[in-house]
TrEMBL record:
Key word Cell division present: no
UniProt cross-references to InterPro entries, sorted A to Z: Nitroreductase, Nitroreductase-like
CDD domains in alphabetical order: Nitro_FMN_reductase
Source organism of the structure: Pseudonocardia aurantiaca
Protein name from the UniProt record: Nitroreductase family protein
């Protein structure tokens, strides 16, 4: 059963959910499968469909991934504090709320019922040139997964900090060297019912017509 959301509602209220992930309620694997099956309808370069999805439900594996994520997050937290000092007061208030929820997720990542890793066939060493064709064949599908999850009452968060330990996580899960991880999507039922569009800069500050 899906929520009664219009396309505009779905697109504007699918948020990164961190503090509101329900860590106690089990997530049926069938729901995750439905979300991934819909994600497979996303575009990929040359229709290669080189994506792979690793769904982690084992408690010990989730805990170990959470440990790697927290290690990487500790380094990120230091850099984040330096960036925050350069923000306007209005933006700083918003980012402070994001920081608080990010801190929470870093502590609880290993307790989230389902961890989904979106991966793509590539090479053991990524090319030094523009990698947009590679990741452009995976990330739309990952976003489609989040939309499908939202429609089914599941929350998720877009996270990549674990990639500081990509090889370690790959070894833990048996991911071969020619498959690269793109994003980690912690998934759980969300608590509460209210999601609203996030504050964004006005369109005309980022829109360029014909020329910059």
């Amino acid at each position: 059963m899906t929520l009664p959301l219009s396309p505009d509602d779905l697109l504007s209220t699918t948020r990164s959910v961190r503090k509101r992930l329900d860590l106690e309620r089990p997530v049926p694997l069938q729901l995750v499968r439905e979300c991934i099956e819909l994600a497979l309808q996303a575009p990929s370069g040359s229709n290669a469909q080189g994506w792979h999805w690793v769904v982690v439900t084992d408690a010990d594996l989730r805990r170990q991934i959470g440990d790697y994520y927290r290690r990487s997050f500790d380094l990120y937290r230091e850099a984040r504090a330096a960036r925050a000092r350069k923000l306007s007061p209005e933006r700083e208030a918003v980012q402070a709320r994001v920081a608080s929820s990010s801190d929470y997720l870093a502590e609880k990542m290993g307790e989230v019922p389902v961890l989904v890793l979106a991966c793509i066939a590539a090479s053991a060493e990524l090319p030094a040139e523009n990698q947009a064709p590679l990741w452009g064949s995976l990330l739309p599908a990952a976003w489609s997964y989040q939309l499908a999850a939202r429609a089914r009452g599941l929350g998720s968060a877009w996270t990549t900090l674990h990639l500081g330990y990509e090889k370690e996580v790959a070894g833990l899960l048996g991911i071969p060297p020619n498959v690269r991880q793109g994003v980690l999507l912690p998934t759980a039922y969300f608590t509460g019912e209210t999601f609203k569009p996030a504050p964004r800069d006005p369109l005309d500050t980022v829109l360029h017509l014909d020329r910059w």
